[in-house]
Design brief:
The structure holds two protein chains of two kinds. Chain A is of the alpha/beta class. Chain A is built from 15 helices and eleven strands. Chain A has a domain at 6-260 and 440-488: Alpha-Beta Complex (Amidase signature (AS) enzymes), CATH 3.90.1300.10. Chain B has three domains: 4-294, no CATH class; 302-417, no CATH class; 425-483, Arc Repressor Mutant, subunit A (Orthogonal Bundle). The chains are: A alpha/beta, B alpha+beta.
């Protein structure tokens, strides 16, 4: 049961082979058993989860031909602890919010649980305020990769990735500001999708870098991602950057054959800087696509080498302002001893934030300050436009762009923790996608030394459906995505 | 001795009269229990996002059109970053590089009576922003309380050019702006509640010097009187400083109404670096020509237009026209009065509204909208003066009766109290004869050249007539008899 797809689980629930309470209990028991090793969840509340499951069972029981339950009603999932959920502690991986119980639901939470009837198994661990690529910056300790517990699961959605990979949950949500869905998906052998900016509401998703943040699904397959994405998307009047466009059914186009698909291979993604064996796995996957009827064409993203520096100006700039609300005045952590008001702010923020968050707040405040704004922030925005234009050019000659998701497989805990630049470079292939606002995916495409490798797919604006179709056809022809770590075998 | 010229520019924060806040759905009503009108967005809970209230934009467009400014097709919201307990997000959403309203001007009448002159003040810009909450320092045993009811209330910050040259001009500008924002219905203008507050940038320079002196900004002036007192004090202080050989340092100062003095709040060196940048949570504000046209269609006749019409159509002086357009309510009352009394009575209508009615209202602390004497009643009274049924003096009696509710119309009061003017020449002549006979001493004095004695005789006749004799006829008859 634990390795079934969402479609299979939905069928089992609809056929009353298993109840949502039973299914949820199964996963809650696995969490209880395996989470002490993996540290994938920061909050589990069995009673809350089972209450949701009972509700779902009632919905399934009350369903009729005229009024069916939602296609995923009763399926349990894990929620990244960046989404505010009413009555749930919502920490964002930070000491600052360790005691914060949200009084309201994020739009994504509302849609998935209240509307679609999904059951929450709990909140997953993450890099503090989503700032990190290894899940080592969490106040609640690092998450371990189920494929090798001495290694990182990637970040920032590392808890969600580890939870789904170890089958502590059938699927999970993640958020992606510079690769935080795709990179951990690659390192944990999952399929993960970052939608076009504006497709999934950001309301209630604790902001890291507002112009880059986007929520999305993390699951075992493209089909699971499509089903999950269907429950997450839609215009939200509470998010001014949400896009008002017709809702798509992402499952419908999954089976479309790939004949004539033009795959763009950016020469910048196939040069130096990537592990050779990872690259070999990526090339093998592309060869597989050619067998499925696709052709390849070389494209160029000439400004992609500027994406990491531009990102590390824009994202910290927005973060420095977004995180100002954590001041100890209204909620969250407040330093126990302080003198005057300034001292309260200083001590609260010095004690409440971890080192990486403080580093980014400092960088952000610096690049926005008088006299530096033009040289850093405005310059980075210009680069951002150049990068977006590169993609517009590239998509004139191809339908999807492919390359590696991450330059290496999962690295050891602590390996890059002391070297922020090395850490930042692990997102070298994913960041440009966020800067351009495009949809991107990571799909399992092989193993190196027993560790998973991810193939990155990048689509044009609103091409989520096409990306899922392209990933799904590959998964019909390969079985990388079906492989499980020992703990879930 | 150096002649000093004063240079003043004013920044005004006008709270916009929207039902809900500028970026959330919470109510903006004044006076609720602390923190009962602050929703998740106002509290800046993690994850919440701002959504722009279109009604606030309507207000900005109205204002832009009313001052003949350019309403920007594209403007941008920016974050002004600083920490303060009553600023929940740690930044204020405002507009910096691209404001919603650019340029425009305001015409003022400065001074009184014969010395009145018109002055045009140019406006630099007006932009939308959110208000902060309030810190409460009493009743918390050494700690401070925070009330976030006001947080997120929409403000229009209106910035003038440094075009004013005296505190009188500054006050005239503030009054004209105050009248305008109320007139077009975008701000209730309640200064006590902080709905309309001014910051004055003040500098002085030797007369004839082209460049401005160093300015100091007086913050948060919430009455016209304080505005004047603060500027007058500040100007004198700056002149003294310079004359004693000290330089003015750019600074922000506060006015203490009790001492009547300004004192330094922070110097330029302490000024914050607000690290403005475009708010990534809000798209640029796009205002279509259709939107502007719709708002234009809903605009009332503006005070300036009305003022011109009062001069050209009703023959009023610029001063009267200006006073009668000080607020929409006054103008409405005046126009209703003229509509019933006739355009040929516009001048007496203006006098009654501006002098007698205004004085009475002032005495009782009432607004014109609460006047016990309705426009129709006043018009009826003015018609009876015009057709000589009553004199101006008797009219004041009738007005008082109407004010006190002793009669529904002027005619009823005149009738009931027998106040109709005596115009029968025979009757008046009889009274004149009696007075002349009884006041031989006055007659002798007049004949000896004492003009004053004439007035005494008029008074005697009027007294005998219980005030009801037609004064002109009394005058004429007396003159005739004394000359004869």
């Amino acid at each position: 049961m634990i390795n079934k797809s969402l479609k299979e689980l939905a069928q089992a629930l609809a056929a009353k082979q298993i109840s949502s309470v039973e299914l949820s209990t199964l996963f809650l028991d696995r969490i209880e058993r395996l989470n002490p090793t993996l540290n994938a969840f920061v909050t589990v509340d069995r009673e809350k989860s089972l209450a949701m499951a009972r509700d779902a069972d009632a919905r399934i029981a009350a369903a009729s031909g005229a009024k069916p339950a939602g296609p995923l009603t009763g399926i349990p999932i894990a929620q990244k602890d960046i989404f505010c959920a009413e009555g749930w502690t919502t920490t964002c991986g930070s000491k600052m919010l360790a005691n914060f119980v949200s009084p309201y639901d994020a739009t994504v939470i509302e849609k998935m649980h209240r509307d679609a009837g999904l059951v929450s198994l709990g909140k997953t661990n993450m890099d503090e305020f989503a700032m990190g690529s290894s899940n080592e910056t969490s106040f609640f300790g690092p998450v371990r990769n189920p494929w090798d517990t001495s290694r990182v699961p990637g970040g920032s959605s590392g808890g969600s990735a580890a939870a789904v990979a170890a089958r502590l949950a059938p699927a999970a949500t993640g958020t992606d500001t510079g690769g935080s869905i795709r990179q951990p998906a690659a390192l944990c052998n999952l399929t993960g999708l970052k939608p076009t900016y504006g497709v999934v509401s950001r309301y209630g998703m604790i902001a890291f870098a507002s112009s880059l943040d986007q929520g999305g699904p993390m699951a075992a397959s493209a089909e699971d991602c499509a089903l999950l994405l269907n429950t997450m998307v839609g215009f939200d009047e509470r998010d001014s950057t949400s896009l008002d466009r017709p809702v798509e059914d992402y499952v419908r186009g999954l089976e479309k054959p790939l004949n004539g698909l033009r795959i763009g291979l950016p020469k910048e993604f196939f040069g130096e800087g990537c592990d050779a064996e990872v690259m070999a796995a990526v090339r093998a996957a592309i060869a597989e696509y050619e067998k499925l009827g696709a052709s390849t064409v070389e494209v160029s993203l000439p400004n992609s080498h500027l994406s990491v520096p531009a990102y590390y100006v824009i994202a910290p700039a927005e973060a420095s302002s977004n995180l100002s609300r954590f001041d100890g005045v209204r909620y969250g952590y407040r330093a126990p001893d302080y003198g005057n008001l300034d001292d309260m702010y200083a001590k609260t923020r010095a004690q409440g934030f971890g080192a990486e968050v403080k580093r980014r707040i400092l960088i952000g405040a610096y690049v926005l300050s008088h006299g530096y704004y033009d040289a850093y922030y405005l310059q980075a925005q210009r680069i951002r436009r150049l990068i977006a234009n590169d993609f517009v050019e590239a998509f004139k000659s191809c339908d999807v762009i492919m390359g590696p998701t991450s330059p290496s497989t999962a690295f050891k805990l602590g390996e890059k923790a002391a070297d922020p630049v090395q850490m930042y470079l692990s997102d070298i292939y994913t960041i440009a996608v966020n800067l351009a606002g495009l949809p991107g995916m990571s799909v399992p495409c092989g193993f190196v030394g027993g560790l998973p490798v991810g193939l990155q797919l990048i689509g044009n604006y609103f091409a989520e459906g096409q990306l899922l179709n392209v990933a799904h056809r590959y998964q019909q022809a390969t079985d990388w995505h079906l492989r499980r770590p020992a703990s879930a075998a | 001795m150096t002649q000093w010229e004063v240079v003043i520019g004013i920044e005004t924060h006008a709270q916009l009269s929207t039902v809900s806040k500028i970026f959330s759905g919470a109510s903006t009503a004044f006076g609720a229990e602390p923190n009962t009108q602050a929703c998740a967005v106002d509290l800046a809970l993690p994850g919440v996002l701002p959504v722009l209230n279109k009604k606030a934009v309507d207000c900005a467009i109205r204002f832009g059109l009313a001052i003949g400014a350019e309403v920007a097709q594209k403007s941008v919201f920016a974050r002004k970053n600083y920490f303060y307990p009553d600023l929940p997000k740690g930044y204020q959403i405002s507009q910096m590089d691209l404001p919603v309203v650019v340029g425009g001007q305001l015409a003022l009448q400065v001074g009184q009576g014969d010395k009145v002159y018109e002055k045009l003040v140019r406006l630099t810009r007006a932009h939308l922003e959110e208000d902060a909450g309030k810190s409460l320092h009493e009743d918390f045993h050494g700690k401070s309380g925070i009330d976030l009811n006001r947080a997120g209330t929409p403000l229009l910050e209106i910035v003038s050019e440094p075009d004013m040259r005296s505190s009188d001009e500054a006050v005239a500008y503030a009054r004209a702006l105050h009248a305008l924002v109320r007139w077009i219905g975008i701000c209730d203008g309640n200064m006590q509640e902080g709905s309309f507050r001014c910051d004055a940038n003040v500098s002085v320079r030797p007369k004839g010097q082209a460049e401005f002196g160093t300015r100091r900004e007086i913050k948060n002036l919430n009455s016209f009187r304080f505005l004047k007192e603060a500027i007058d004090f500040e100007v004198q202080w700056q002149i003294n400083e310079i004359e004693e050989g000290r330089k003015i340092q750019q600074a922000t100062v506060l006015f203490d109404p009790d001492s009547g003095e300004t004192r330094m709040m922070r110097s330029k060196e302490d000024a914050h670096d607000y690290r403005y940048f475009p708010d990534p949570d809000l798209l640029p504000l796009a205002i279509s020509t259709d939107w502007i046209a719709n708002v234009r269609g809903e605009l009332p006749e503006l005070p300036g237009q009305k003022r011109e019409r009062f001069v050209s159509e009703l023959g009023l002086s610029a001063y009267d026209a200006s006073a009668l357009t000080a607020s929409q309510e006054i103008a409405d009352f005046f126009e209703a009065t003229v509509a019933l009394a006739g355009k040929n009575n516009a001048k007496p209508c203006a006098n009654w509204v501006m002098v007698d009615l205004a004085a009475r209202l002032n005495k009782e602390g009432k607004e014109i909208a609460e006047s016990p004497v309705a426009a129709g009643q006043l018009a009826g009274l003015i018609l009876r003066i015009a057709d000589n049924t009553i004199s101006n003096n008797i009219a004041k009696k009738v007005f008082e009766a109407l004010w006190n509710g002793d009669g529904a119309t002027a005619d009823e009061v005149i009738d009931k109290q027998g106040l109709k003017q005596i115009t029968d020449t025979g009757a008046i002549e009889k009274l004149v004869d009696e007075v002349l006979a009884a006041n031989a001493a006055n007659v002798a004095e007049f004949k000896a050249g004492k003009e004053k004695a004439f007035n005494a005789l008029v008074g005697q006749v009027m007294k005998a007539a219980k005030g009801k004799a037609n004064p002109q006829q009394v005058n004429d008859l007396l003159k005739q008899k004394l000359a004869g």
